[in-house]
Amino acid sequence: MISRQLICQNTAETSAKLSKILKKIRRSLEEISCLDVDAALISRLIFRMKKVFRRDKLLQSMQKINRCLTSLLEVNLPSTIKELDDCTHENNGPTKEMLQWAMLSLQRYAALLHILIARCTTAVPNLNDKLSSGHHWNIASIVLGVLGRLWVLSCHVRKKSCLWYKQLGRFIPRAHEMEDNYLISSHNFPQDLATWLENLFPPTQQPANSCSSALTESKEAAVKSDDAVEVQNEETKSAMFFNEDLGEVISRESLNDSKKPKQKLMKQIKPFTSSADLLKFIESEKSLRKKDLTAAKTKHLKNKTWNRLYESLTDLLRFTDKKIHLA
């Protein structure tokens, strides 16, 4: 940081004015520090959108906006203004080369903001198509909110940058010039930065307020759909409450089913009082299953299940007979 005495009659007053302007610029740049947040949010959205949209025009526009924001953060304008403010005290101020570097940084900063506004404007029609068709409308609404805030902030900062550029340009003739001049002799700073931006980057065919127009169009479409639904509901209600007599009354008795539900007749098995009764039942069921399965009481059992039941019951009978003989 090089501080030199200003070339003017009232050096203290000029230094105080320059310091006041620089502090105001630093304060304004600190207030718009949310550009870092928007840049991080857009990079996250691009990461999430890569698998969903692939080669979609919306994704390509978002990538261009992200590159523009990255270049905007690389300018590092707050540190440049801070160095100028640190050099300004009492009768001293920054050199002519330092002020020229600050003006070049402001010029680049405003140009990037101008490009950013144009890219946000071109991305909005793709978002409008997503919202009107309903294709991934939730992602499109988030992106529209981020780009809308970024567009408004960029317009505000671009206007401020043109004002700061004009204010700093007034102090270049009063600054001390060093021997080494890094700018070529034919280089000329534009007098009006806003006019230079419009000539260098002509505006796109779409209006600047396309962000708001997309929202208004989506709102109008939603209102039209709501009106159509209300008309349809009114027609449905009028049809539902039509109570005029259109014919003879039909008795409900004819609608009743005359057929009675079928009842399953289950053959009940009487309880066994002795092992002889159980043995008799087993043998009779065995013979019935061989002759006529429909007459057997265990006809619902499969052969495999019946064989297991037969073996278990015969084993039980043998065990009880042995126990009776032992007793």
From TrEMBL:
Q: Where are the transmembrane segments?
A: none
Which biological process terms from the Gene Ontology are attached to this UniProt entry?
Answer: positive regulation of Notch signaling pathway
Per its UniProt entry, which superkingdom is the organism in? Eukaryota
Q: Kindly list the GO CC terms recorded for this protein.
A: nucleus
Domain called Nucleolus and neural progenitor protein-like N-terminal: residue spans: 11-168
Kindly give the InterPro entries that the UniProt entry links to this protein: Nepro, Nepro_N
Q: Kindly give the Pfam families that the UniProt entry links to this protein.
A: NEPRO_N (PF14780)
Q: What is this protein called?
A: DUF4477 domain-containing protein
Q: Which organism is it from?
A: Rhodnius prolixus (Triatomid bug)
Lineage, top ranks = Eukaryota, Metazoa, Ecdysozoa, Arthropoda, Hexapoda
